[in-house]
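Please produce the structure of this protein holding zinc ion.
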Amino acid sequence: MRILLATAASLALSGGFHGAAIAQTNTSTTVTTQDSLEGANYFELESSLPFKAPDFDAISEDDYMPAFEKAMAIQKGEIQRIVDNPAQPTFENTIVALEKSGRMLSRVGAVFFHLTGTNTNDRLDEINTEISPRLSAHSDSIVLNPELFARVKAVYDNRAAMSMTPEDAKLLEETYKSMVHAGAELTDAERERVKEINTELSTVTTEFAQEARNAMADQPVFFDSREDLAGLSESDITSAAKLAEEEGQPGKYAIALQNTTQQPLLPSMENRAAREKLFMASYHRADGTTDVDTRELVAKIVELRAEKAALFGEPDWASYTMYDRMVESPQAALDFMGQMVPALAETQRREGALLTEKIAEEGGDFEVQPWDWYRYANQIKAEQYQVDDDEVMQYFQLDKVLEDGVFYMAEKLYGLTFERRTDLPVYHPDVWVYTVKDRDGSDLGVFYFDPFQRPSKRGGAWMSNFVDQSYLWNEKPVIYNVLNIPKAPDGEPQLVSFDWVNTAFHEFGHALHGFFADQTYPSLSGTATARDFVEYPSQVHEMWATYPEVLRNYAKHVDTGETIPTELVDKIEASSKFNQGYDFGEVVEAALLDMKWHALSKAEAAAIDTPEKVSAYEDSALRDLGLEVDLVPPRYRTTYFNHIFSGPAGYSAGYYSYLWTQMLDRDSRAWFLQNGGLTRENGDHYRETVLSQGGTRDYSEMYRDFAGRDPDVQYMLIALGLAEEQPGTPEQTAGDSSDGKLPAGAVDGGASSAN
Ligand SMILES: [Zn+2]
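Below is the modeled complex.
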């Protein structure tokens, strides 16, 4: 994902208005380069390095603030020149001119927000705090500029009479729609009300985030005796004693809540009453059971969002916010999830019964409850699948995973080759740099790989661009992948867990989406696609991590050099299908709950005006789903569902994206396997129909071009063990055709699962 999207600066920097020259008449070949102007701010001029890669050796922390200020001023001037142009508005003098604006801002933002994510310090954090609201205001001043919108609208209204390439047409549409979405078409009074709502939402959602955090941080769960914590490790018990003491209750034990409904310590806890106590504290978080209660805030947020949607003439918030998605309406998202409900409910009941059996075997006389679930599920998993993570890791060394696994896959599928280079400056000594060569041997772009965990890096894994591919500026992609693999001590081999292997393939899938970009305009280039699409190409590439031919090339034992045994991979595969009634079920329930809250009309939302009514609505919404919500509660309940209620929009009406892209992914894996697996022909077809298309096309059409049909949810259900494989289904076919070594479907890793 683009890191810029995670910041307040997203729109100005990557939402449709990147690009822009220091002087608009320049083309990229004539723009002055860094060498020729001494004493200037680094970001004023284009990098003189190959591929315009950032020159980290030449950038000083003192450059950022003046660069942001100057860059905003330049873009402001560029916008003013568009508005002041005496000529009639045209695609070129308005839409393209806007696309070209803010080029220096893109340059400084791409480097600055990369570093605040990967190698930050107090100074960078301070600048970030100061600049983010200003960038956000700067972006508003463009998208809500009435004179600019008048010109954009004039071009848009004339579109039927113009001759444009499909990409031009898409740029026009996206530019127009994003301004309308921001409120450009509203009356002055409506726009004033939208601004008020935005401010109010910003306040109320921030309060929600703080209260939800307080409900975790300030309300640990206390236990009187050590016996209550039986089963926990010595260090967990010591921490619990320490926390109780810090909380003013020495001699007791306290456990802090984590953000999901399930709590990580529950499986280890032997004392059932203590498990129930911890679980119930989590489940009833911020719902009025204690003095922290977010229900009034929820009522307010839902009401404000519905009101805002109504001002835009939309029936509900979900309809308003899904305007640029692949799934175009709340009903379509609900229908999609509805298809999984019968199989999922059945699996929840079946797994529940299995766990109750297990409990009886152990001498217990009770039916499984949510606080028991993982304790017994983990026991079954350990007995049946016996996957020893340490043993698995011996087969995965980082350099081999990247060069003999990920790069090998890219060579087989797409004909790419890679050359390590050490001449380009890096921002940290642990960053590796490669030139990527295309199938015809020409330069495709540059790839930075930043694999290791460090205190200055935020958690997780992600991809973004230093330079976006575009023909407008004649630029090739400069792309990075960031991971958080624990670094081995000096002198020891760098082994990685299977989850990180999967993540490396996943992130490189994003990178390929960026490298194969074939667009004129940077704002439609590569991964600049919808929230419910962008994770799909990356997830598909996880399939190759366990594909026999790839695996044989890179998964070699660190001491013996032996290839990973088939049985071990089989076990990893099989264990991934177990417990999906819970693992998958809780995510589906959260996604459905999100959609239920955001598909309310203004009148419906306004009627939910007391804490009691918030609880009642949640309860009825969950009951309506047809899932076993008492046995498997949602991953987040309303009162602490931060993804959707913290931040003015957050992931609201978007939590389903995790499921949707997984569905596309599984359907695509089936296509690859039905068509012969890892071949250049398949890779070239995927590149042609999907990876090279950026955000230029209708997503459903794009998908049909690739697969020759609409995606089918069945393959996801099979992969999750929620539906039976039919004879001759792709996984079996592939097993047969790849000399029977390993099943070819891959295992999901950390990167693609919901958090
Ligand atoms: Zn991703």
